[in-house]
Amino acid sequence: MSQTATTTTRTPDTHARPPHVDELAAMTVAELHERYVNASVPDTLDALDGAPRGRMLTVIPPFEQHREALAAFARADGFPWRGKSFRSFDGQTGDGINRVTLLGDQFPFHLRFGRSEIDGERAILLDYDRPENPWLIRQIHDELRQVGPELFLGPAMWKARPSPKLVLWFAIDTSA
What we know:
Elements: E1 6-8, H1 21-25, H2 29-37, E2 40-42, E3 53-59, H3 67-75, E4 81-88, E5 93-100, E6 104-115, E7 122-127, H4 135-138, E8 140-148, E9 151-158, E10 165-173
Antiparallel strand pairs: 1-2, 3-10, 4-5, 5-6, 6-7, 7-8, 8-9, 9-10
């Protein structure tokens, strides 16, 4: 098998135009889930290196009744989360941190490939279980897959037992 720039987790719709972050933000939770399980995973973490822009796309019930207001807030300049900064060490592992206005860089994470909590397929995993993070942040599990040439989609989950619970969907735009 020859190595390619990305590894497909499912068969993607090759005729579909790559999405824009605004199109992802307009999707339902079910549509985002479908897009995620059909997304690809880059062979190396180098595709994320830098300080790409992030955007919260939607929240999961019971907050869904406030979806439109939260989506408008997430698009606004005043939304506190600006994205994540990523640094690949060797293409297979790395680290990163969230960029938050007023607070600066907060909540570091380890970066690696692993199995998704959504479907058990390969994904980029963001592990917040680091001693410098508060207990609450250490309970977060984020993942990413690539849905466009410079666009990544990810679920943010709470580490509940017996399995993590989906809280929201977010996007990372490396073109920004």
